[in-house]
Write a sequence for this structure.
């Protein structure tokens, strides 16, 4: 589990303030008391102590930062983020605080904002492994696989020694269908024994290669070895889905979401499965969450448009589908839904146009598949 | 306890046919095995009762009938519902992997010919009289592989006269592009997404015993799908027969006959997708007037969670989906169906919906799906609502199966429509209709003169004190099957139909008044329209 770190007493980092505090023994002992309470896990009392201190010295960065850490642990992310930002205004070069700010965003599934902070840290401290790996993880969650590859490929030759790097880079390569490179990383992980991580990578690669039986076998093994591996249940769910087991898939997605409610894939696929079962009320919040996680995701927008169409919100569905097909003109299913939406909206000319696009697209896809075969 | 009046009841009767689909428990799964099972009820020997013909599978992957168990089977009816095997004499045993059956008098000689749809091989049998057949596939010009797709996998056929020239043409529903050496590896039978779709075919009758391929010229070939079922009706009442084609996990086709060309209108008409804008696993279909408003409605069946969509024809070129409002969505949500049939099983004046049920998947997927299912009849409650009857209709008297094709007709002359259902690797079932309601009925046997001899496409209105009801001669119904008996009407308490009005495909209208119930009424098309 990725967690924020207490910056520490900071006595030496902010010497002038420390000197000021040194002249105010009450404040110094108050800060010491706050840190002690914090380290003991007495969060409410620690926060109160930090706040009292900040009442006297609102510009004392360690108190701002540490109180933000406490707020994160209390689940009060917005306040935490505010304090981290305040701290960074005072000390913009402080990488530890920026990483903690990124972590707060990460925990709120604000991967874009988290990545932005981490990019700043990585630019200044390219050797900061925590920032680098977390940044790669954010990119992966945002579906920005190419960025993961660009970030980590310098380490590809030695990635087997660092399982985290091997895993992140391997996943990105597999998703980008660079299966050979992904496989090489996988082999390196496998040399270290049959681990859940390795089986997960094998499963992910097999999923991308549309070898669904192999994917299911590997992911099942991974689940047996380490069921709570982040992202594993989501992949297992996809494999079950592809192996015609929607009930099993739904259960796997739900397990993933129990440990990580912000897993994009699980939200998207669980929502899609429920929608296909006509369980629209239950499907909707999952799709909405997927959309919050990745507002630009075409798959999530498509599912929401389909829900809108079902609910009779034809105008909304139409707008969304029009923007989807503008971005992804080969997305056949979106054209099918858009044609249906146009006819519902009594726009037969537009409907006919879509109908012809569907026919041409089907024909093109068929010919392409024929060539592949 | 005696069933309540208005109930629909069936009793199973044995029939000596087992559908051999070539499936093995341990071996690889070849998709044709789960799509077998078409059958026909038709009068093969012209004696007035309905005989039975079952298409059968073959060894897989060779697609050859390597053992007698794979023979298609023709069973002659003695008129009281007892059947005798007549396959060898009839010459209908077949050669390949056969899936669907369509019957019709394509040469207008007064007897029923047989088209067998199969995997990479279709067969046309000409009835030489007395239920003795000759394979005329090559001579008729039907043996040509598709120039682009090669040999096609045909699931079903439908004889109908698309150009109203008095001769039956042939529509063939084609499913997937399939080759045994390219069968993907899946835990059970593979999803259709793993296969390329194929276009359907339309063959025009040259009136000389041959057919020519007009699929491209009529616009049919432009639309590539994964066809499973076809149902025929004149939905816009313009005097030309239209086609509804279901596709497996793809949008349906509604081919509107625009006179020489077909326009695909499923989206415009609102029948491309199921409720909730879903592409579903369309299986069989029927296309008849469900609510007695004179406009043919559409029903199709699909798999679990997909429902059995019912579309009401609004008469303005558009259909409104009734699936949810009729109760059919909720009732069918956990069902998988193959062969639907809209027939009035309790003779109350409204057509009910029979569905042969079973899952597409193999038996080794039992842990995930309810693979074997009982059949169900949905009783029509006045054209707007339905009630599902399974055990209530007696279907629990036989074990659940992977039911496939279904054909309908009065097998024992009691005026109640019976059903025959095939099932994979299991004996077929006859379901004798023993619905208790003392309702009257009328069966109308047509003979066209200017129109095609079978009168396919003729629209019939029957008027009783309860109002009008409508049906049309259209034998291709359900999944890969044909129900070529006389056109049936339940008259409820009316012992006489005040009016029987027949609109022949030629355009002629014939009116018969004061027609007594309880008979098979033979009606010949007048030479000149009266």
């Amino acid at each position: 589990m990725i967690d924020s770190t207490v910056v520490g007493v900071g006595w030496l980092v902010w010497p002038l303030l420390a000197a000021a505090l040194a002249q105010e023994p009450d404040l110094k002992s108050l800060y010491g008391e706050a840190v002690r309470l914090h380290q003991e896990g007495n969060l409410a009392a620690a926060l109160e102590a930090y706040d009292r201190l900040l009442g006297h010295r609102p510009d004392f960065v360690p108190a701002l930062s540490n109180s933000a850490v406490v707020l994160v642990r209390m689940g009060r992310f917005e306040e935490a983020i505010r304090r981290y930002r305040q701290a960074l205004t005072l000390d913009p070069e402080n990488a530890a605080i920026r990483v903690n700010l990124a972590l707060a965003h990460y925990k709120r599934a604000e991967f874009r904002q988290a990545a932005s902070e981490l990019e700043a840290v990585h630019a200044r401290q390219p050797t900061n492994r925590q920032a680098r790996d977390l940044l790669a993880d954010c990119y992966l969650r945002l579906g920005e696989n190419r960025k993961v590859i660009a970030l980590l490929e310098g380490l590809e030759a030695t990635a087997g020694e660092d399982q985290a790097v091997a895993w992140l880079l391997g996943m990105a390569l597999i998703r980008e269908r660079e299966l050979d490179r992904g496989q090489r990383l996988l082999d390196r992980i496998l040399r270290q024994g049959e681990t859940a991580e390795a089986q997960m990578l094998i499963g992910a690669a097999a999923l991308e290669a549309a070898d669904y039986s192999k994917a299911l076998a590997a992911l099942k093994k991974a689940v047996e070895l380490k069921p709570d591996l982040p992202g594993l249940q989501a992949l297992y769910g996809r494999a079950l889905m592809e192996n015609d087991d929607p009930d099993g898939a739904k259960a796997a997605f739900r397990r993933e979401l129990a440990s990580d409610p912000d897993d994009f894939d699980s939200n998207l696929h669980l929502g899609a499965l429920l929608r296909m079962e006509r369980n629209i009320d239950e499907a909707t919040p999952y799709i909405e969450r997927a959309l919050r996680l990745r507002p630009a995701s075409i798959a999530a927008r498509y599912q929401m448009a389909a829900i809108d169409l079902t609910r009779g919100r034809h105008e909304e569905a139409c707008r969304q589908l029009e923007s989807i097909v503008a971005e992804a003109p080969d997305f056949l299913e979106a054209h099918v839904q858009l044609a249906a939406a146009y006819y519902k909206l009594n726009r037969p000319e537009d409907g006919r146009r879509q109908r012809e696009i569907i026919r041409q697209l089907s024909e093109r896809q068929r010919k392409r598949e024929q060539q592949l075969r | 306890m005696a069933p309540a009046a208005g109930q629909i009841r069936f009793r199973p009767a044995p029939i000596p046919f087992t559908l051999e689909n070539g499936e093995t428990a341990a071996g690889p799964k070849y998709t044709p095995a789960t799509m077998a099972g078409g059958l026909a009820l038709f009068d093969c020997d012209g004696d007035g009762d309905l005989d039975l013909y079952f298409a059968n599978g073959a060894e897989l992957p060779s697609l050859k009938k390597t053992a007698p168990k794979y023979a298609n089977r023709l069973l002659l009816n003695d008129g009281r519902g007892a059947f005798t095997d007549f396959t060898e004499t009839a010459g209908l045993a077949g050669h390949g992997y056969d899936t669907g059956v369509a019957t019709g008098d394509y040469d207008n000689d007064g007897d029923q010919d047989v088209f067998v749809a199969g995997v990479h091989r279709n067969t046309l049998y000409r009835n030489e009289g007395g239920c003795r057949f000759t394979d005329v596939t090559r001579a008729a010009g039907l043996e040509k592989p598709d120039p682009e797709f090669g040999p096609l996998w045909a699931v079903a056929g439908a004889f109908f006269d698309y150009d109203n020239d008095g001769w039956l043409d042939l529509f063939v529903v084609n499913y997937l592009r399939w080759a045994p050496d390219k069968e993907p590896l899946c835990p059970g039978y593979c999803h259709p997404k793993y296969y390329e779709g194929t276009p359907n075919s339309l063959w025009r009758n040259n009136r000389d015993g041959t057919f020519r391929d007009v699929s491209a010229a009529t616009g049919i070939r432009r639309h590539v799908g994964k066809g499973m079922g076809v149902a025929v009706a004149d939905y816009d009442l313009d005097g030309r027969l239209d086609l509804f084609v279901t596709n497996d996990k793809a949008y349906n086709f509604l081919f509107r006959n625009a006179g020489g060309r077909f326009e695909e209108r499923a989206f415009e008409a609102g029948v491309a997708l199921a409720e909730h804008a879903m592409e579903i696993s369309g299986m069989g279909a029927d296309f008849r007037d469900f609510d007695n408003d004179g406009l043919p409605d559409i029903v199709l069946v699909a798999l679990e969670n997909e429902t059995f969509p019912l579309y009401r024809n609004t008469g303005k070129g558009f259909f409104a989906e009734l699936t949810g409002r009729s109760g059919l969505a909720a009732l069918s949500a956990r069902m998988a169906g193959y062969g639907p049939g809209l027939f009035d099983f309790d003779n109350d004046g409204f057509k009910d919906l029979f569905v042969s049920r079973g899952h597409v998947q193999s038996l080794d997927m039992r842990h995930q799906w309810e693979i074997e299912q009982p059949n169900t009849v949905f009783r029509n409650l006045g054209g707007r609502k339905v009630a599902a009857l399974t055990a209530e209709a007696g279907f629990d008297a036989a074990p659940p199966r992977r039911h496939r094709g279904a054909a309908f007709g009065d097998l024992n002359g009691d005026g109640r429509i019976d059903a025959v259902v095939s099932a994979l690797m299991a004996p077929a079932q006859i379901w004798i209709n023993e619905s208790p309601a003392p309702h009257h009925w009328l069966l109308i046997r047509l003979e066209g003169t200017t129109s095609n001899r079978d009168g396919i496409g003729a629209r019939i209105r029957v008027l009783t004190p309860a109002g009008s009801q409508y049906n049309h001669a259209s034998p291709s119904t359900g999944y890969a099957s044909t129900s070529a008996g006389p056109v049936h009407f339940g008259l409820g308490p009316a012992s006489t139909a005040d009016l029987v009005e027949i609109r022949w495909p030629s355009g002629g209208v014939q009116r018969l008044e004061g027609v007594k119930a309880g008979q098979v009424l033979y009606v010949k098309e007048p030479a000149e329209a009266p």
Notes: Confidence is low (pLDDT under 50) at residues 1-16 of chain A. Residues 27 and 109 of chain A are 36 Å apart (CA to CA). Chain A touches chain B at residues 212-213, 216, 243-245, 247-248, 275-278, 280, 306, 309-310, 333, 336-337, 339-340, 343, 348, 351-352, 354-355, 359, 362-363, 366, 369-370, 373 (CB under 8 Å). Chain A is about 75% helix and 0% strand.
